[in-house]
Design brief:
Number of helices of chain A: 8
Largest interface: A-B, 69 and 71 residues
Distance between the termini of chain B: 31 Å
Strand content of chain B: 35-45%
Radius of gyration of chain A: 21 Å
Distance between the termini of chain A: 70 Å
Radius of gyration of chain B: 25 Å
Structural class of chain B: alpha+beta
Number of helices of chain B: 8
Helix content of chain A: over 70%
Number of strands of chain A: 0
Strand content of chain A: under 5%
Oligomer: heterodimer
Shape of chain A: globular
Largest sheet of chain A: none
Chain lengths: ~180, ~450
């Protein structure tokens, strides 16, 4: 027997509701998902792209998601495979890869350290407030404006290596601040 | 962090190098450390990444640009769903990603309606060909100059190479007029644009009056002129090209793969998938010939602007006025036999190489002059640097372009006490600091790179 035709308006309404539901589910895990992808991809620019691909794939496969099961688990499983694909592409193009074993370990550790992550996240907010203006300006140029390191080095009258070193020291400074607050 | 005693001291450096520079060796180190028993290395990596991510979020959140970005995405989402009041900014960002190509097109159209924040750097110049003539009022740009959003680049001759986002490099070949709208978004008003886009650059978009071309990881070229509209040619990978409608919308999408061309004309509504009328190969050949597979020319290093064949490299024949020209020689050459170099290394005969000559010659009229520092970034790891006159002479026959003429004298190569040339980065960068002396005004270096390097 042929199915009853669905009026277009109803179809659109269902799609809209489905989209709303998807966005609500995604909203609950987005920050966590972003951190997870970042942990497996490492590079901050690449992880934005992988995260976007993950979101597109999640939406594309949302029909396959079984309600009543964990959306987080489903999404993270897809994210893991996207990260693995990213590294396989990297291997093809640049001959460098984080192996499946390494990715699995990072994935497990990420999951195991979720509670610590939440605590550290709050403490980091306090540490960030203590950064000086020049440090914030520097961070802003590198991280947000994505200024070329060479250009920053030129402006500051230093070398690219010195700029990378400064970034590294800044992260270590925050790590020490975190350690002090944790103890 | 390296303060933690149980963590190997190399890990902290490796994580820094991986998250800041994506360095190959660093990633290999991390991979190796993660495979070992124990969790210290993994937890340390996660902690550094979390701190870095926190820094990113902190500057993102306070930025005016973030506001503009949210406004863009708000609009994208509101068109997709009527109920948005409850959503967070993060949700909006996610919603925009739901259908990638549609969102890209939408964001472009919305972007033009919104007030822009103060100019932000969206790219940088990585090569300016010798003899390039700038027609834009903003004046010439040099290598490493930042490019602000909405910067128009107009050339009457020559070419420039610009990075407009990670893994996105474009050549603008004069005569050309283009506007760099934002990272990964370029408007081509007239002339030839060639894009080389790696995996991280997917989604790079070129708009013209006639078409929107969204890259899906590839090498492609776009030519725009008033007479024949917009023509697109894909040389590897895939792009999605869409005819623009008069009302600003898009229609008639074509998926183009390697070897395919198409022509778009918004005024007539024409989409022609037949062979392109514009001769891309001839128009782009000088740029390919001048650049080879070099990704970046910094400092004194510079490409020529035209075909490089049969040049005279003898002393005082090709003066360089303080620059170091980087000149592609033969590509895909397998030496007849093993090539023994004076530093004790031997190039195997079964490998194929692309060759480049770094050349500078100040002529007469000075005692000692520093030419300056610079660097050249190649598309793959460097196999050999040939720096002595004897080695240069010994390799001319195999690697030099046909018809080239060279100085037979013993001073072609570098002077160990005055010149410094080394390989840095992850093996793809030659940095140099050269100076020449009276009577020895010529410095040359031959660089061999394994042939068939995969782009990006």
């Amino acid at each position: 027997m042929l199915a009853e035709p669905v009026p277009i308006a109803d179809s659109q309404s269902r799609r809209s509701r489905r989209q709303e539901l998807f966005l609500d589910l995604l909203a609950e895990i987005t920050a966590d998902l972003e951190g997870y992808v970042r942990s497996l991809v490492l590079d901050r620019n690449d992880s934005d792209d992988v995260l976007q691909e993950v979101c597109v794939t999640l939406w594309g496969k949302f029909e396959e998601f079984e309600f009543g099961t964990s959306f987080r688990k489903w999404a993270f499983s897809i994210a893991f495979h996207k990260c693995r694909s990213f590294w396989r592409d990297r291997q093809r193009y640049r001959g460098v890869v984080l192996s499946d074993a390494a990715l699995s370990k990072l994935s497990l550790l990420h999951e195991a350290s979720r509670e610590i992550d939440e605590i550290e996240n709050r403490l980091l907010d306090e540490c960030l407030k203590r950064l000086g203006t020049s440090d914030r300006k520097f961070v802003r140029r590198i991280y947000f404006e994505q200024a070329a390191v060479a250009a920053v080095a030129k402006d500051e009258g230093t070398t690219s290596n010195a700029v990378y070193l400064k970034l590294s020291r800044l992260r270590k400074k925050l790590a020490r601040c975190l350690d002090r607050r944790l103890t | 962090m390296s303060d933690t005693p149980d963590v190997p001291p190399t890990l902290s450096d490796a994580v820094d190098a991986a998250i800041d520079r994506g360095e190959t060796a660093a990633i290999a180190t991390i991979d190796e450390l993660l495979k070992r028993p124990g969790t210290e290395a993994g937890l340390e990596i996660l902690r550094t990444v979390r701190i870095d991510a926190k820094l990113v979020r902190s500057v993102r959140d306070e930025s005016d640009h973030a506001l503009a970005r949210r406004l863009l995405v708000d609009d994208a989402v509101s068109r997709r769903s009527p109920s948005k009041a409850r959503r967070t900014g993060r949700q909006r960002l996610t919603a925009a990603a739901l259908t990638a190509s549609a969102a890209v097109a939408l964001l472009i159209s919305v972007a033009s309606l919104l007030p822009r924040p103060a100019a932000a750097s969206v790219g940088r110049v990585v090569a300016v060909a010798e003899g390039t003539v700038w027609a834009d009022g903003a004046g010439p740009l040099g290598v490493d100059d930042a490019i602000d959003a909405d910067r128009v680049i107009e050339l009457t001759e020559g070419f420039v190479t610009v990075e407009v986002g990670r893994d996105v490099s474009i050549d603008l070949v004069g005569p050309v007029r283009a506007r760099i709208d934002a990272e990964r978004i370029v408007r081509l008003d007239e002339g030839l644009l060639a894009g080389v886009v790696g995996p991280a650059g997917r989604g790079f978009t070129v708009t013209t009056e006639d078409a929107t071309v969204v890259d899906l990881g590839t090498r492609f070229q776009v030519h725009k002129d008033r007479a024949s509209g917009t023509q697109v040619r894909v040389t590897s990978g895939r792009v999605e090209a869409t005819l623009r409608r008069d009302d600003g919308g898009d229609a008639k999408v074509l998926d183009l793969v390697a070897g395919e061309s198409a022509r778009f004309d918004a005024t007539t509504g024409l989409v022609d998938g037949l062979e392109a009328l514009f001769d891309f190969e001839t128009a782009y050949a000088p740029v390919e010939g001048a650049k080879g597979d070099v990704r970046r020319f910094a400092g004194a290093a510079k490409p020529l602007s035209g075909p490089v064949v049969g040049l005279d490299f003898r002393s005082r024949a090709f003066l360089t006025r303080g620059k170091v020209f980087v000149i592609p020689e033969r590509r895909g050459v397998k030496p007849d036999g093993p090539v023994a170099l004076s530093d004790g290394t031997t190039l195997p005969a079964d490998a194929a190489y692309d060759s480049y000559l770094l050349h500078c010659d100040l002529g007469d009229g000075f005692d000692v002059e520093a030419i300056g520092e610079g660097s050249v970034t190649f598309g793959g790891p460097i196999a050999a640097l040939i720096v002595t006159a004897d080695d240069l002479v010994a390799t001319d026959a195999a690697f030099a372009t046909a018809g080239s003429r060279f100085e037979p004298g013993a001073f072609r190569g570098l002077e160990p006490d005055a010149d410094v040339v080394e390989v840095s980065g992850s093996g793809e960068v030659v940095t140099f600091d050269l100076s020449v002396q009276a009577g020895r005004s010529l410095d040359q270096v031959r660089v061999l790179v394994p042939a068939e390097t995969v782009p990006f």
